[in-house]
Amino acid sequence: MAESNFVDYVKIYCRSGKGGRGSAHMRREKYIPNGGPDGGDGGRGGHVILRGNRNYWTLLHLKYDRHVFAGHGGNGSRNRSFGKDGADKVIEVPCGTVVYNAETGEYICDITEHEQEVILLKGGRGGLGNWHFKTATRQAPRFAQPGEPMRELTVILELKLLADVGLVGFPNAGKSTLLSVVSSARPKIANYPFTTLEPNLGIVSYRDGKSFVMADIPGIIEGASAGKGLGLRFLRHIERNSLLLFMVPGDTDDIRKEYEILLNELATFNPEMLDKQRVLAITKCDMLDEELISMLSENLPENIPHVFISSLTGLGIQQLKDILWTELNKESNKLESVSSEKIVHRNKDIKLLQTELEAMGEDEDITYVDEDEIEDLDYEYEDDYEEEDWDDDKK
Ligand SMILES: Nc1nc2c(ncn2[C@@H]2O[C@H](COP(=O)(O)OP(=O)(O)OP(=O)(O)O)[C@@H](O)[C@H]2O)c(=O)[nH]1
Ligand SMILES: [Mg+2]
Prior knowledge:
Blueprint: E1 9-15, E2 48-52, H1 60-63, E3 67-69, E4 89-93, E5 97-101, E6 107-111, E7 117-121, E8 152-159, E9 165-169, H2 175-182, E10 200-205, E11 211-216, H3 231-238, E12 243-249, H4 255-269, E13 277-283, H5 290-297, E14 306-308, H6 317-328, H7 335-342, H8 350-359, H9 371-377
Parallel strand pairs: 1-3, 2-4, 9-11, 9-12, 12-13, 13-14
Antiparallel strand pairs: 1-8, 2-7, 5-6, 5-8, 10-11
The structure holds guanosine-5'-triphosphate and magnesium ion.
Guanosine-5'-triphosphate is lined by residues 169, 171-177, 189-191, 193-196, 218-219, 283-284, 286-287, 310-312.
């Protein structure tokens, strides 16, 4: 998986900027005796911001730049000059990115929309300059506030593809073939299980220029939710799909049983998957005759619309698109309503976290340590400004 361009899991280290310190300057000019405090405030440190960008499809661009630093705030100076704010650092991520704390596994936020922004780490506030501390009894405060320290955090970014329809089926069920027939996507197709190793997206055009997005993901096998096969790794890409198209080949001994196994894997993985609308497609029906089809129809799972299709002959494909379109447009099914409120992201299990990181090749420690910066953080401020702040007029 290491050389793949499809990156859906990445660990990065982020650090916001520290706030600039306030100045403790005293105004000192010719003919103005006792000018009083005029030290300006420090600037705010830069934030680390996540922003959704629909032009990105994977997290590949983050894989080679794992350290993200925002700029520090500038220090305040005399004449009530404010320090400059530190530069914010924006991390562009594809829509459908979920963020977890890499140490505790805690869910932090998710980015689902284009240009949606979330401040991941706030920059430190700038310290106040000494003129704020002037009171009736303390005319010349010779101290100012330091800036707030920076904050650091290592996070896991995980991509969950946003599609309208997700294909769910055992390996070899004909998922990729269907995608290649209804869209211009060209996934690899072959007569052996696990041909598809990474998700493929395709845009299915419907009547009158309308379209929807279909995601072909690797096959799911019994025990997938317990980590068997490629299952778990990609099941999370289904979590978001607003409609699930179950695919079971027509020559399967017990279609109903196979459907139930699939459903059970999804439910074990995340019970909320059962809230999604489902459609059942019986595939490869060019191998069946009319009689067999009507026999099979009698023993199909109830409460789910079904359709007999063949990607080879085109049988039922238009009917399938019609059903998908109708289901997708039912109010309850809109992707928007599925997004933030409906999907509850669980924290990652701290006990499994290390194993997961290892499995994804992201277990390396990427914490950034810089001795100078650490010293900088705990500087003392009260007697920090001395004569040098006073002798700046040599006119
Ligand atoms: N006869 C017939 N064969 C089909 C049909 N659809 C797919 N196949 C064949 O079934 C085999 C598997 O097809 P794929 O589309 O690769 O199956 P998949 O579900 O994507 O499989 P994985 O990627 O391994 O999970 C291929 O040999 C296809 O040619 C169909 O409608 N009729
Ligand atoms: Mg496939």
